[in-house]
Write a structure and sequence with these properties.
alpha+beta; Beta-Lactamase; Heat Shock Protein 90; 3 domains; five-stranded mixed sheet; 17% strand; transmembrane; phosphoprotein; phosphorelay sensor kinase activity; cell membrane; ATP-binding
Length: 453
C-alpha cells in the first residue's frame, strides 16, 4: 500500500467515522430537544388557554354581578335577567357560556337551546364521562377545569374540550364555559411537522456537507501533503467561531426579550411597592395600600408566567384585547400614576398595523418611558404616533436634563434594544438630546416594508 493511499486512509477513515458519529448524535440530540420543546410548548399552550377561560368567566361574572347584588330584584326577575345576559355573551368564533342548577338542569345554552330545561346530571359523553357532575364538583371548590367531549358547532362533530366552571352562590347555579382543543392539537401537530422537517433538512445538509468534505479530502489528498491537516484545522476553527457567533446572536435576542418584557414588569412591580410604601407612610387608607400591593402581586405572578413562556409571549396580550392605541394609553396611565409626570398623548393611525409593528412600537414606548423615569428628571412628556401615507412615525419628547451628546450616555442595554427592535422590522431609529433641553427618541416604520429575519 503506497504512502499516498495510507495518507488518504489516515484522513478519510477518521473523518468518515467521526462524521457518522456526529450525524447520529446530532440527530438524536435534535429529536430529544424537539420532544422536550413540544412538551413544554403543549404545557404552556394549554395553560394559556386555561387562563383565557378563567378570564372569560371572570368577565361574565362582572357582567352579571350588579344583578346578583341588587337586593331590590326578586329571585325570579333577577334570574331571568342573568340568563338573558349570559345567553347574549359570546367570544371568539365558538365561545359561549352555559348555566346549570344544582340538580343538573340546563338553564342557559346559546348554541343548543334544545337542551334548556333538560336534566343532564346523568349525561355521559362518548368516553363515559359524567361531565355535568364533574363540572359541578370543580365549581364547588371555588372554580376549576375539566376535560370532556362535546359537539362543536356548526357541524356538531364530537371534539375534546376543556371547561372552566364556578358557582353563582346566590342560587347555587354553575356558570361555565369551554374551549375546544382541536385547534391546540392542530397547532402542536404543525409545530411537530415543522420540527421534523427542520431535522430532516439539517440531516440532509449535514450529509451533503460531509460528502463534499469527504470528496475534497480524497481529491486533495492525492495532490498535497500533510500540510492539509493544518488547513482542515483552520476550517474547523472557522466553523466553531461561526457557531459561537450564532450562540451570541441567540443570547442577544433572548436578552432583548427579557429586558423589554420581564424586566419592565419587575420595574413596574418595584414602583408599585414603592408607591404602596409612600401611601403607607402618608397614613393613607389601608384598602388603598392593599390595592397597590395586590397589583404588585399580580405583576409578580404575570412575570412568573412570562418567564415560563419566555419564548412565546412575543405579543403583549393588551394588544390583542384592546389594540395598540389603548395599550399605549394604558402604559401612559401607569407611568403617570407612578411618576406624577404629565404626558400629552396623541394617536392618529388610520390603517391597521401589522402585528410585528404593533409589538415593536409598544415595546419601544415601554423602553422610552422607562428611560425617562430612570434618567431624565422630566416634568412633561409628549408621546405621539401618527401615520403619513404608508409610514408610521413614533415620537417621545421629554423636557428633562438631556445630555450634550450621545457619547455621554451610559452604554445601557435599553437604548441598544430600542434601536435593534426598530431596525429588526425595517424601521429607522433617531435619538436627539441636548443638555438641559430634553431628549427625543423617534421611530419611522414602513407599513408595507418586508420584515427582516
Amino acid at each position: 500500500m503506497g504512502l499516498k493511499i495510507k495518507i488518504i486512509l489516515l484522513a478519510v477513515v477518521p473523518l468518515v467515522v467521526s462524521t457518522v458519529i456526529i450525524i447520529y448524535l446530532n440527530q438524536k440530540s435534535a429529536r430529544d430537544l424537539a420532544a422536550d420543546e413540544l412538551s413544554i410548548y403543549e404545557f404552556n399552550l394549554v395553560n394559556a388557554k386555561k387562563e383565557a377561560l378563567r378570564s372569560h368567566v371572570e368577565i361574565a361574572m362582572s357582567a352579571i354581578r350588579p344583578i346578583l347584588e341588587d337586593d331590590s330584584l326578586g329571585d325570579m326577575e333577577a334570574q331571568e335577567i342573568v340568563k338573558s345576559i349570559l345567553k347574549g355573551l359570546r367570544y371568539s368564533d365558538d365561545g359561549y357560556f352555559f348555566v346549570y342548577d344544582s340538580n343538573g338542569v340546563n338553564l342557559v345554552h346559546p348554541t343548543q337551546p334544545e337542551l334548556v330545561g333538560e336534566n343532564l346530571w346523568l349525561f355521559k359523553d362518548t368516553s363515559g364521562n359524567y361531565l355535568i357532575q364533574h363540572l359541578m364538583a370543580v365549581a364547588k371548590t371555588g372554580g376549576g377545569f375539566h376535560r370532556y367531549i362535546w359537539e362543536k358547532p356548526p357541524l356538531m362533530e364530537q371534539e375534546e374540550k376543556i371547561g372552566y366552571a364556578i358557582m353563582i352562590d346566590r342560587w347555587h347555579w354553575m356558570l361555565g364555559t369551554g374551549l375546544y382543543l382541536g385547534d391546540v392539537y392542530q397547532e402542536l401537530a404543525k409545530a411537530k411537522a415543522t420540527m421534523n422537517a427542520n431535522i430532516r433538512r439539517s440531516f440532509f445538509l449535514v450529509s451533503v456537507v460531509a460528502s463534499i468534505t469527504l470528496i475534497c479530502v480524497i481529491l486533495l489528498g492525492l495532490a498535497i501533503n500533510l500540510h492539509e491537516h493544518k488547513l482542515a484545522d483552520s476550517r474547523l476553527k472557522a466553523l466553531v467561531q461561526r457557531f459561537m457567533r450564532l450562540q451570541v446572536l441567540e443570547k442577544r435576542r433572548l436578552s432583548r426579550e427579557l429586558h423589554d418584557g420581564i424586566n419592565q414588569m419587575l420595574v413596574s412591580c418595584k414602583f408599585r411597592i414603592e408607591l404602596a410604601g409612600n401611601k403607607l407612610q402618608r397614613d393613607d387608607d389601608k384598602a388603598v395600600v392593599k390595592e397597590e400591593l395586590i397589583k404588585a402581586e399580580g405583576l409578580i405572578n404575570q412575570t412568573i408566567n412570562d418567564i415560563r413562556q419566555v419564548s412565546h409571549d412575543l405579543r403583549p396580550t393588551v394588544l390583542d384585547d384592546l389594540g395598540l392605541e389603548t395599550g399605549l394609553k394604558g402604559l401612559i396611565d401607569q407611568f403617570q400614576e407612578r411618576t406624577r409626570i404629565k404626558v400629552k398623548y396623541s394617536f392618529k393611525v388610520i390603517d391597521e398595523l401589522p402585528d410585528e409593528i404593533e409589538i415593536a412600537l409598544y415595546r419601544f414606548a415601554q423602553e422610552a418611558l422607562t428611560n425617562i423615569e430612570k434618567h431624565s428628571q422630566a416634568k412633561n412628556v409628549i408621546l405621539q404616533v401618527w401615520q403619513s401615507q404608508q409610514r408610521v412615525i413614533f415620537e417621545c419628547l421629554d423636557d428633562g436634563r438631556g445630555c450634550s451628546h450621545q457619547s455621554t450616555l451610559s452604554p445601557g442595554i435599553g437604548l441598544i434594544n430600542m434601536r435593534e427592535r426598530i431596525e429588526l422590522v425595517g424601521g429607522d431609529f433617531v435619538f436627539q438630546s441636548q443638555k438641559e433641553k430634553g431628549t427625543k427618541v423617534s421611530a419611522i416604520l414602513s407599513i408595507t416594508s418586508p420584515i427582516m429575519d
